[in-house]
Specification:
- The protein is an alpha/beta fold.
- The protein has one domain.
- 31% of the residues are buried.
- The protein has ten helices and six strands, in the order H-H-H-H-H-E-H-E-H-E-H-E-H-E-H-E.
- Helix 2 packs across helix 4.
- It starts with 5 loop residues before the first helix and ends with a strand.
- This is F-box domain-containing protein.
Length: 245
């Protein structure tokens, strides 16, 4: 499988798509006929001019925006400008932000007063102007550089996090405090988790896995597993986390 090809992207995204399924099953298997929805999405991406794309996507219902982002992520990753047009003011499509580099490189989060109030246990007036009933729940970043300043702004509402083939290492021990509600975490295909530096090993040792009490699945494909990591991961759990190698 050629790295960064459509087939590679389909495989890289397969775990998170399975964990957070949508109405479409995206596959490149030649014996599976694409759905009518996927055929239409393909036509939209291939036939629309840039201006037509910008004019059309605000009219799409939110669930189709999600399907379009996922389809494009595999077949023809969107540029930053097209992705922003598709995500709109919410900054996500049906609770999901999916950024594929190097086509798109910027990652920004829109945190509203309603989201902050809900997380702090305060009452929320959902009629207020900037309320967001569906906060960001799924963040997927592939083949991109991720600055620490961006990591520190990860919304705590995230339940599905995939950081795949990042260009630079990040301090993993920071993630449990930033995203305590994770059900799914995929760190596959990161070279810095294959040939680990001393700093990366120390960061993994410092991860407080117990803070992810709801974690069900850990993607760790083509990554090295340090001694003791799996024991720490499953310590004091009734059910072991499923690790996908």
């Amino acid at each position: 499988m050629i790295a960064f090809s459509a087939a590679w992207r389909a495989e890289a995204l397969s775990l998170v798509f399975q964990s957070r399924p949508s109405s479409q099953t995206f596959t490149l298997e030649p014996n599976i006929i694409p759905s009518l929805t996927q055929l239409c999405l393909g036509e939209l991406l291939s036939e629309c001019t840039t201006q037509e794309f910008y004019d059309l996507v605000p009219c799409l219902p939110v669930h189709l925006r999600l399907e379009l982002v996922r389809y494009a992520a595999i077949h023809c990753p969107l540029s930053s400008s097209k992705l922003r047009a598709l995500l709109g003011t919410d900054g996500h499509a049906d609770g999901e932000l999916l950024v594929i580099g190097p086509s798109a490189s910027s990652v920004h989060f829109r945190q509203t007063r309603a989201t902050v109030s809900a997380l702090q246990g305060e009452s929320v007036d959902w009629d207020m102007e900037d309320s967001t009933p569906n906060p960001l729940q799924s963040l997927i970043i592939v083949s991109n550089r991720l600055a620490m300043s961006t990591v520190l702004t990860f919304p705590p509402t995230i339940t599905h996090l995939a950081l795949i083939n990042l260009e630079n290492p990040i301090p993993l021990h920071q993630l449990p405090a930033l995203c305590p509600l994770l059900l799914f975490l995929d760190l596959s295909y990161n070279l810095w988790l294959t040939n680990m530096s001393v700093d990366t090993l120390k960061s993994i040792e410092r991860v407080d896995w117990s803070r992810w009490s709801q974690l069900k699945t850990l993607g760790w494909r083509e990554c090295f597993i340090p001694d003791g990591m799996l024991d720490s991961l499953n310590k004091r759990r009734w059910d072991d986390v499923e690790v996908m190698y």
